[in-house]
Description:
InterPro entries: NADP_DH_HndA-like, NuoE-like, NuoE_dom, NuoE_N, Thioredoxin-like_sf. This is Diaphorase subunit of the bidirectional hydrogenase. Belongs to the complex I 24 kDa subunit family. There is one protein chain. By secondary structure, the chain is an alpha+beta fold. It has seven helices and four strands; from the N terminus they run H-H-H-H-E-H-H-E-E-E-H. A four-stranded mixed sheet has the order 2-1-3-4, with helices on both faces. The longest helix has 13 residues, at 156-168. It is globular, with a radius of gyration of 17 Å. Bound molecules: FE2/S2 (inorganic) cluster. FE2/S2 (inorganic) cluster is lined by residues 93, 95-98, 134-138, 141, 143.
Amino acid sequence: MVANAEKSTQKQHPSGDKRFKALDITMKRNQYRQDALIEILHKAQEAFGYLEEDVLLYIARGLKLPLSRVYGVATFYHLFSLKPSGAHSCVVCLGTACYVKGSGEVLAALEKKACIHQGETTPDGQMSLMTARCIGACGIAPAVVFDGEVAGKVSAEQALERIEKWLMANG
Ligand code: FES
């Protein structure tokens, strides 16, 4: 039923991962309509198990949407999972609105506490720490997404409290 798909891979993902081909088919079927974003994210999550930045970028390019918009939608809906390798995930928004409200300090505190840098996972696999440019929650800046749940007006202290139990889970 996907006989024509072979011919339609004009922008095949360099990894050669066949799941991107499935994503191409879904986007094509939806005529690359931007309002099909949620449906496409659904398909992507089905295919990948979770949504990683590479996948979000691929979708953003396909639908000609800014990555921040795709990221915002993917992090806002709890049905989508951005979970990378850690058992728990923490995404600190470094977009302008959040940054001016102190998200840089929140990130620094988290990095210090977990002894990792943004984009890394603790050696015990308990927590992955990531950053985003804008998750679409500027009104409650600074925003941090803990295990897919958006928290607003997060202080460094509150953020440390949230991750403390994760880091102690196997200690
Ligand atoms: S800048 Fe952080 S939510 Fe928009």
